[in-house]
Task: structure prediction
Amino acid sequence: MITIHPHPSEKIHHQVDRKRLLGAFKRVLPPASILTEAEALRPYECDGLSVYHCLPWLVLLPETVAQIQQILRICHGHGVPVVARGGGTGLAGGALPLANGVLLALSKLNKILAVDPDNRLARVQPGVRNSAVSEAARPHGLFYAPDPSSQIACTLGGNVAENSGGVHCLKYGLTTHNVVEVKIVTMDGELVTLGGGGLDGPGLDLLAVMIGSEGLLGIAVEITVRLLPLPAETQVLLAAFDAVDKAGQAVARIIAAGLLPAGLEMMDHAIIQAVEAFIGAGYPVEAEAILIAEFDGIREQVEEDLARAAALLPACGAYRVTIADTPESRQKAWAGRKAAFPAAGRISPDYYCMDGTIPRRFLAETLKKIAALSAQYGLAVANVFHAGDGNLHPLILYDAGRPGELDRAERLGGAILAHCIAVGGTITGEHGVGIEKMQQMCLQFGAGELSQFHALKRAFDPLGLLNPGKAIPSLHRCAEWGAMHVHRGQLRFPDLERF
Result:
């Protein structure tokens, strides 16, 4: 476990009279919605990336937008930083609290406000679970497409903050492609609407700026999402390979052939065995890798695409191709994929879940590189990928009880992300930067780009009070880490050090 302390180069907010601040909050919230005791604060000390911990100074649980506005006005007036938290399932430390700030837990804003089947829209609060949206839309023959593996627990507010995806993002896109409007509260308590109910919103496309901003610009309090018709036909194909690189090459061949699966997922031997031992999904345990491809749409198109894929895969090295031809078998195939992360917890005391994205054509090469890095650092890696869009989730297996293993796991993860950058990819596909990938941000971007990110942050949050120390590193930190993108270590924008 790593306890987070402020870095000397980061902005430290002035001391606040705690008693006076609590008095202000008590005029806004009932006593049960203000948590101050260590036992009550402990569940909020980390998110899904449980390597990093920090006991929050204070946790507030508002129930209305008006309460959130008043809380932020109080914090703004006292110079108190604020971190928003949804379901706590994030995997990059984005919801890690601050020892000198307020953690704003949005779990009580959990209502589906409206389902509009005529316009195929749903209006929800940020604490609504991802899967609950599709459950509410299903009676109308509709569904919400983004489906992260944590969808039974993750919330729409967190999905907006991280621009979450899921196994069907290849065809249906990420959160940014499925949200049409977000109402946010700014740090000074103003309620602002971004986007609109139509195909395009008025003014600059600030909605796209907000989605994926990791809580740095504003706090989402109401989200309008796009709903899609449930497909008339769905079929799932599973292909087994005797070599991981063959599976990687098959992904590129499927896309190059003009096929567009709703989902195209890849799992290697280690995770296949872990999943089978966990839930018995029916995967071939001897395979070095499997691909799961789902095709949906009208029956004729699905049957044609399925036949083309089934004919293509043996030529790519698949030694077995099977069709999950019943709803039960399809559900079982996907249940195995979505159980990959918890299954990994059964084969290792600890694991470190990475998240990077590469161009599809480099998938086979990247798998070989990960295997080489695994041997170099002496730590096993189990791979599960959103293969269709090149989003990798290598699971680095380690034991935090052994001296030095956590450090090696982090360095191995950093080396994998450096490779993603080198082949033209990115350091995150859907988990965000949080505190986990701050150093890699200095590799991905130069000083000019980082300065623009900070300028955007200042435009929304001039005092730097929203989720400080996350997602965008200061140039000072990049220089300390030796990232030479920062103009040979020289700080050309010293005014940015305070963020």
